[in-house]
Amino acid sequence: MFNVYGGCPNQGTGIGDLESEQMALVSDPRSPFPDCDFACIERLTMYLKMIVRISLSLVLSLSAMGVVATAQAETTLEASIHELHHQWAVSRYQKPVNKRAENFVPLIEKAQRLADRFEGRAEPLIWKAILLTSYADAIENLESLAKVKEARDLLLRAIEIDETALDGFGYIMLGILYDRAPGWPLSIGDNDKARVYLEKGLSMRPDDIDANYFYGRFLRDEGEYEQASIYLEKALRSSASPEQPVADAGRRKDIMEALAKTREKLAGL
Length: 269
Hints:
By secondary structure, this protein is mainly α.
C-alpha cells in the first residue's frame, strides 16, 4: 500500500519490516502524532475507521430519508389533485347552475394553496386554470374575461415547467380557452391557436375521453361534422374512470349531447 506521505513502502513482508515502518511513522517529525506510540496509533486508526463507517451510514440514511420524503410529497400532491378533481366534478355536474360559481371560488383558493405548497410544479397551476375557466363559464360577465386571461397565463407557465404534466392536459385546456373565449378585441379567442393546442393535446392523449371530446366539439363548431362525429364517438367508447365516477358520468353526458347535435347537422346536409 502507499504510505502516509506518498511513494511506495519497502517491499519486505517480514514482521520486522512492518514494525520498522510503524516505528518510522511514530518517530517521523512530520507525523501529526510525534509523541504517540504504536498502540496509540492502532487505537487512532480504529477510531478513524469507526468514524468513516458512521459517516457513511449517516449519508446513506439521509439519502434514504430524502427518497422517502420525495415519494410522500408525490403521493400528497397526487391525492390532493384527485380530491380537487372530484370536488370540481361535483360542482360542475351535481350543483344547480346558479350555485356553480360560488362553489368554484373555494376550490380556486384551494388550488392556489396547493400551488404555493408545491411551488415549481405544473399540476396545481393547470388545475387552478381549469377552475378559473369553469368559474368564468358560470358567471358569464365582464369579470369572466379577466379570469380567462389569468387561466391562459397559468397554463403557459405550467407548460413551460412541464408540458407532460397531467399527460399534456395543459395543451387541451389552452385549446379550450382559445376555442370558447371571444375573439379580439374582447378576449383571447383564436380558432387557429385552438386547433393547434387541441391537436397537440390529442397527440399526447390519443385515447383520452376529454381530448377526443373537446377536439370533436371544436370540429363540430367549425362545421367539420363528419370528422367531429369520429372523435366524439371515440370519446364515448373510451374506458370508464372508476377513480372519478362523477366526472366520468358527467363528461359522457356532455359527449352524448354534442354527438346528437353533430348528427343533426349531418342529417341536414
